Amino acid sequence: MKVAVLKGGRSFEREVSLRSGTNVEAALRRLGHEVLSLDVDRDLVRVLRADRPDAAFIAMHGQGGEDGTVQELLEILGIPYTGSGVSACERAWDKVVAKAVFTAGGIPTPASYAFSQAAFRELGAADALGEIESRLGLPLVVKPARGGSALGIRLAHEPGEVPAALMAALAYDDRLLMERYVAGRELSVSVVGDDNPEALPVVEAIPLGREFYDFESRYTPGATDLQAPADLPKDVTDAVIDVALGCYRELGCRGFARIDTILDGDGQAWVLELNTIPGLTDTSALPRAIEAAGMSFDDFIGQVLDLAHLGA
Amino acid sequence: MATDHARQTHSQVTPTDAERYDARFAARATAIRSSAMRDLMSLAERPDVISLAGGFPDTSSFPADVFEEVMQVVAHDHLTSALQYGPTEGLRELRERIVEIMLHERATATVDQIMITSGGQQGIDLTIRTFVDPGDVVIAEGPTYPGAVPCLTSYQAEVVHIPMDDDGLQVELLEPELDRLAALGKRVKLIYTIPNFQNPRGVTMSGERRERLVQIAHARELMILEDNPYGQIRFDGDPLPSLYELDEGRGWVVYVSTFSKILAPGMRVGWVAAPPPVLRKMNHGKQSEDLCSGTLSQRFVLEYLRRHDWRDHVARVNEIYRERRDAMLTALEEEFPTSATWTRPRGGLFVWATLPSFIDTQDLLAKSLDEQKVAFVPGAAAFLNGEGRNSMRLNYSAMPAAVISEGIARIGSVVRDQTDLFDGFGGGR
Question: Is A219 a catalytic residue?
């Protein structure tokens, strides 16, 4: 089969995507597929039309790849692609929308408020900061509404740190989210499948010497201890997986995805986000989950490719 | 778009295998961490981005006919030796000519104190390699040369930054810091400084501070690594005496320089001047790293120096850089808010700008790349301790004046936008 691997692009996560893409390509070649390696740019549609791959494996992270854009193009071109369809991508990509979907579906996600830049510039939203801080408590998490790899995410420990945290988040997106900080264990669940999705073993990320699982912890070999399966009582594992599968269903995901949660001291898992194109780099959580499931990386990639589809 | 149909021998190493290396990597390999900044910088290389991030000298001004002429001489008269290994310390006549070049920098050396290196970068690496054990303290300017950071990190130096002002390293802060470190039982091995047109700050160490620094090194028996790649890139004034000169042959200074700025960086020809016992150790280190620097490049540089006055080329590029610096300073004046400050270099390649403390220049870089397609080096890249977060390094050597003005205007618009936004937050209340 001739498979186009879409990677790179010009999102902030370009380099991460190139690393994911390289791993996907190697796996596809080992599986005997013909690989068309595409560092995505404005020639994408032209090249795909000319080369007519049988399917596209999307290994792009961030804007353009994870937000439904490239999926829409592949729909138009009639090339089946891996992972979720356009609308699931759009909804998962915007954390404000995704959290609303989770809440409507009864899935626990930390309380939050979302504001656009315009709210601060034109409506004096800053005057409400004191109220937001007292409702959400401190520290509070400030993050761009859309974005990945923890870029632009800050923890504000006191009111004086909030404005700089808002600035950081708004550097990456014109909308931000202020979210209640949940202290606890960082657990991720990867899910694979369409109609009967299955969860892979839960992975716990224990960043070494960092306050949270930030960019540096994510992509420096050895900087984070990834435990797979996470050391949890069975009932907690089941509950975390239940929450993850709920997210997957509520957003209407297909193919595969990774759900990031925080397990608080009371054993409650809070969903932070769902990634429609989980990282496949050497230091990413998903490859660890695959290993813990007793699968080979290549077989997993093959399985995701088999689920490639058209139509959201 | 690059497409790749090539059939290669398939790697059998999957991401799930990658973890097995973690326990095997040497500490010096794992010391260098991934960073969002480095990943963002790769976006700066895209052709539609105005990048004020690089440190590239202008190579378009090197005359093609001169290159051709010198290469013909190499081909006709020196081909066999130019294609052969050479002595580790480099071609002797080139070392002799370096002694003459150093006199223009007010640094007196003898040929037995000179070793050719593969760029000045290797001189820095070899010096740190020769002197620094893991945990040893290296004193560096704050900010320091971003390219020295991976070097210092991989040799696991503990870096202590000493602040700078418009007269360079604040030497008066050095002694109390050395006392503090001594009280902690720390071993200080090196003082790393770029006295002339420092990268990234663009400033020059005053004569008085130079003398004081060397006195301190003598009194405390500390080695100084004097990095001088920009000394000839001077728009006005005369050179101050080098630290190497002020050492008066007592052997507490290692001097590093390069042909990268006075000829071209693609040559990868630099040099160190060091006391012979130090040079012998560095020679062993160089044997391990690359046996010798490229003989073809060395021969090219030597034949160029035999036939042409290198100062003519330097004068040519300095004219270009002066105009570009002026364009940058004018644009900064027009485009940056009054709350920003910046240095006014009289040479070298860089301006260092500092913004209000609520702006993080790494986040600003993301926004600048995304919305304005313009890049710079975030200040944190020039520190090993997380400082510099509201500063940026701006290069003026690599782009024509009009592009520099446009680039600064674009950064200025993002900065103004962020400043307005912050005001909307009640300015920290």
Answer: yes
